[in-house]
Amino acid sequence: MVAVTIWNEFRHEREDDEVAAVYPDGIHATLAAALEDDHEVRTATLDDPEHGLTEEVLDGTDVLLWWGHKAHDEVDDLVVDRVQERVLDGMGLLVLHSGHYSKPFKRLMGTTCSLQWREDGATERLWVVDPGHPIADGLDEYVELPETEMYGEPFDVPEPDRLVFTSWFEGGEVFRSGCCYRRGSGRIFYFRPGHETYPIYENEAVRRVLRNAVDWAAPTEGAPRTFGHRD
Amino acid sequence: MVAVTIWNEFRHEREDDEVAAVYPDGIHATLAAALEDDHEVRTATLDDPEHGLTEEVLDGTDVLLWWGHKAHDEVDDLVVDRVQERVLDGMGLLVLHSGHYSKPFKRLMGTTCSLQWREDGATERLWVVDPGHPIADGLDEYVELPETEMYGEPFDVPEPDRLVFTSWFEGGEVFRSGCCYRRGSGRIFYFRPGHETYPIYENEAVRRVLRNAVDWAAPTEGAPRTFGHRD
Amino acid sequence: MVAVTIWNEFRHEREDDEVAAVYPDGIHATLAAALEDDHEVRTATLDDPEHGLTEEVLDGTDVLLWWGHKAHDEVDDLVVDRVQERVLDGMGLLVLHSGHYSKPFKRLMGTTCSLQWREDGATERLWVVDPGHPIADGLDEYVELPETEMYGEPFDVPEPDRLVFTSWFEGGEVFRSGCCYRRGSGRIFYFRPGHETYPIYENEAVRRVLRNAVDWAAPTEGAPRTFGHRD
Amino acid sequence: MVAVTIWNEFRHEREDDEVAAVYPDGIHATLAAALEDDHEVRTATLDDPEHGLTEEVLDGTDVLLWWGHKAHDEVDDLVVDRVQERVLDGMGLLVLHSGHYSKPFKRLMGTTCSLQWREDGATERLWVVDPGHPIADGLDEYVELPETEMYGEPFDVPEPDRLVFTSWFEGGEVFRSGCCYRRGSGRIFYFRPGHETYPIYENEAVRRVLRNAVDWAAPTEGAPRTFGHRD
Question: Is the Cβ pair B166, A159 closer than 8 Å?
Answer without folding.
Answer: no
